[in-house]
Structures are given as C-alpha cells and as structure tokens.
Design a protein that fits this description.
The structure is a single chain. 15% of the residues lie in helices and 21% in strands. The chain has helices at residues 21-38, 53-58, 69-75, 216-219, 224-228, and strands at 3-4, 10-11, 103-111, 122-127, 152-156, 162-168, 173-175, 181-183, 186-192, 199-205, 233-234, 245-248, 251-252. Strand 1 and strand 2 form a beta hairpin. The chain contains five helices and 13 strands. The protein is globular and about 50 Å long.
C-alpha cells in the first residue's frame, strides 16, 4: 500500500520491493548532487532518506519526550566487568563445531575526539553468518543457517580503550527495500556508556565492497569521508599466520572525525528493521 505525505511524495512500502535498483541509484545520485551543490558538511546519517524506504515511514518526527533518567536506571539492566567473560569475544567457539567461512580478527580502540581512550565500556557485535543469514525469525531468505555460528559477541574495552573479536566474515544478504536489493557485508557494533541509556549503534563494513554504491543505508551518510569512517582497514599485523585475516576498526565518539552513529539521528531506529 502506498501512503501520501504532506510533502506530496508517494512512499512505497519497504516490503513491496517495487522499485528497481536503477530507480534507487537515480534517487541517490540526485541527493548526492544536491548535497555537493549545497556546500555544507553533513557527516551523520540522514533520518529521512527517500531511497531507504522505511526511513521515511519510521524516522522520528516529534521532539524527544523528557524523562527522568534516574527512574529509567532503576528498571534497566546493570552489568559489571565480571558479567562479561573474555571468551564471549570469540564468536567461533560458542558451539561444538567450527563455523563455516573466513575466520577474521577485529581489533581497534574506542577513543574520544582528543584521542583519549574510553576504558571499561561494554561493546557488543552482531552479524549474519558467512552465507548472509541471521539467526532471526524474520530472516527467511534461502541461505543456510550455520549450526555452529550464532553471530553475537561481547567485550569490555581495556585500559587503553582497546577491544578484540574473533569471528567469521559475514556475507551480503538480500533485503526488501527494492527489487534485487542486497546489503554490503557488515557487522553491527553497539557501545554502552556508564548506563544502559547511554547506547550508540553503528555498522562496520569491509573495504572494496562492490555493493557500497548500490546500498541506500550506507549512502544515507551523504558525506563520502564520513562514510569511509565506517569501513574497516585490512591490517596484516593483526592477521594471524595460518589462522585468520585481520582488520582494524576504531570508534571515535566526538570531534570532527567522529564515527557516524545511528542514534545521533535515528533515536534507536534499527537499520534493516528485521536485523
């Protein structure tokens, strides 16, 4: 079903997959031209990005409602460093057998805008398996599930803000934004501050992915330099001999080189809805 809004745009349901990739590409190119002509830097994701269909239907349209954070904290979960085991950062040892796919090591630091480490913070990741399939009831596309890979892990940043995960490189997967739509391979990162109300979410991508130019979620960050900050770097020093390839990915919380986070603009909007 189509819905018409006050600005006279006709929005197609994100589950209809009626638009073609060529139509999505044309819309994204037009937005890029307008952004370049405006000459103003815009480094965070747009919450109202027409090629990303469900962003128009789901993005916040009203000002946040003030709440008492102390009351929220009384009812929110709490964790300590003892609650997160060091083995939780290895997603390849959570089951009886070894998962299928390319084993990778992710290593990086969480820093503020001045480069100071952010220590003792809970970092979570979740991802699709090597075939591009999530362990999720709404992900029913015909790619195999891996009985030895769930795709979730946790770690606590060290005194120098560092973290490390061992996992499997995820595959790209189809989604229903438009006909023949595929998401680039990516891993979701969730960073908690000192409270569970202090949460930021982003996605890490892999270098050289041919789907970057076709993906409206990635392109919703209209500034090319800001988009690049979501792409990990292959690091041969992290790569382990005959074991795993290595990637580095730092998260910068503030400043001019900050990492684009979804919660900066989307107030918790989940990127693909189901995942």
């Amino acid at each position: 079903m189509d819905e018409t809004f006050d600005d006279a745009r006709v929005i197609t349901s994100s589950d209809s997959a009626q638009s073609t990739q060529a139509e999505i590409n044309e819309q994204m190119a037009g937005i890029t031209r307008d952004y370049e002509a405006a000459g103003a830097e815009e480094t965070q994701p747009r919450i109202d990005y027409a090629p990303y269909r469900s962003s128009i239907l789901r993005h916040p349209t009203k000002a946040p409602r003030p709440v008492d954070p102390e009351s929220i904290e009384l009812w929110s979960p709490a964790f300590g460093q003892r609650d997160v085991h060091t083995l939780e950062s290895d997603l390849t040892i959570q089951h009886k057998g070894e998962p299928l796919g390319e084993r990778i090591i992710l290593r990086g630091k969480i820093v503020d805008g001045d480069g100071r480490p952010v220590a003792g913070q809970l970092l979570e990741i979740w991802q699709a398996n090597s075939a591009g399939r999530y362990v999720h009831k709404r992900d029913q596309h015909p790619a195999p599930l891996d009985p030895n890979f769930t795709g979730v892990g946790r770690a606590i940043t060290g005194a120098d803000g560092s973290y490390e995960f061992t996992t499997i490189k995820p595959g790209p997967y189809p989604w229903k934004n438009h006909f023949n739509a595929w998401r680039p391979a990516h891993i979701h990162f969730s960073l908690f501050g000192t409270q569970f109300t202090q949460r930021m979410i982003t996605q890490m991508y892999f270098p050289g992915d041919p789907l970057f130019a076709l993906d409206p979620i990635y392109q919703a960050i209209v500034d090319p330099a800001a988009r690049q900050r979501l792409v990990a770097t292959y690091d041969h020093d992290i790569t382990s001999h005959e074991w795993a390839t290595g990637y580095s990915f730092d998260l910068v919380l503030t400043g001019t080189h900050r990492t684009p986070f979804e919660t900066d603009t989307t107030a918790g909007q989940s990127p693909e809805g189901a995942h």
